[in-house]
Each structure stands twice: as structure tokens, then as C-alpha cells.
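User: Quick sanity check before I run a bigger batch. Here is a single chain. Can you write out its predicted 3D structure?
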Amino acid sequence: MAEAASVDRDVEIERLDLGSGAWVDVGRGWLRQADAVCQHLLTEVRWQGSQLFRYDHVVEERRVGSWWSRGNPLPHPALAEATRVLQHRYRVEFAGFAMLQYRDGTDGQAFHRDTDMRYLDDTIIAVLSLGATRPWCLRPRSARHSLGPGRGATHDLRPASGDLLVMGGRCQAEWEHSVPYLGAAGAAGPRVSIQWRFARPQGRPFQGGSYRAPLHYGRHR
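Assistant: Done. Predicted structure follows.
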């Protein structure tokens, strides 16, 4: 009988201190049987696209997503345990979680912060990767105008299937993250990202950018 998917609670969680109260926790192999969970989600979840209004026109976002909230059937039973373990470890409560699918190397996401959370001074964003291994990059906001190779990235955590990344503290205030575009031949297969998010309402709320800032339509996380 195949082993059921579950959280490996003996996995060591290593903290990457980014300075100024920002950090990322990394747990390699945090979820057992991650590939089986990935295949289940790919076939059973109702994936949908979303759009961005960028400057003067609408573009399709290059990934698809879905959302789970309390009171609805779970997309996979292992995600109930994952939610409980994360809530206990970080002493927060999540209302649900997002699911994003990067279908191949042509899907990706540019450097950004999760400013839609509004309060960025003390956040928890847990990201569970399933499926294909993809680059997953971090850069300080001070490097956001970089144009060279890597566009200012200082870390590539490159999560494999079952790996957990947790951005915490002032990570959304001081750092940006990205899933780089690789091109059609740049990924072995689809990657699914499960994301749990929490923000403490402290500090000055994010007010948004200029009129040039991109606007999201549809399910965005």
C-alpha cells in the first residue's frame, strides 16, 4: 500500500536571516508524497485564469489559480494537516489558501511584493511547492531597478516538490520575490504552489503605487 501524503514533522526548518527583521524559513521535503498530491490537484482542481490591467490594456496573467476557504471541501486531505501544522508553528490562523499552477516554463511571475495584504511590517506567507523544480528568487527592494542578469536577485531557493518556504517578518516590506519565466523548454512539467497568508495590522498600511501600477482582476493569489 502506498504511503499516504503527510507532513514530515521531523524535517529541519532552516531560517535565512535577510536582515532588518526579514527572514525566510526553508524546509526541504516537508510534505511526503508531494508528487501524488500535485497530480491529484492538477486533475481535480478547477483552475482559472486572471487578468492584469497594465498601463492602457488588459493582459492575461501567465499562470492559473484557484482558492480554498473554510466550509468548502478540501482539494486534498493532506492540506488539512499542512494548514494545522503551519498555524501551530507560526501561531497564526489562516482563512484559507491559494493554489497557483505554473503550467510550463512560459508561465511565471515577475519580481513583486504581496502588497494586497496592505500591512507589510509583520507577515507570514507560507509557500508549499509541488511538482516541477523551478527557480524561486529573492532580491532586496533596493535592487528593484536592476536590469542585468538576474535583475538584482541575491538568492535562488529553488524549491523541489514537497519543499516549504515561509516568508516572514518584514520580508514583504523590504524584499521582492519572483518565479522567473524560463521559456517553453525550460521546465520539466507543471509546478503547483500552495500559499497561506497572514498579516498583522500594524505599521502604516500600503497605499498603492501611481496610476501606472498594474491592477488585478479575478482570483489573484
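The CA atoms of residues 54 and 214 lie 5 Å apart.

User: Great, the batch can go ahead then.
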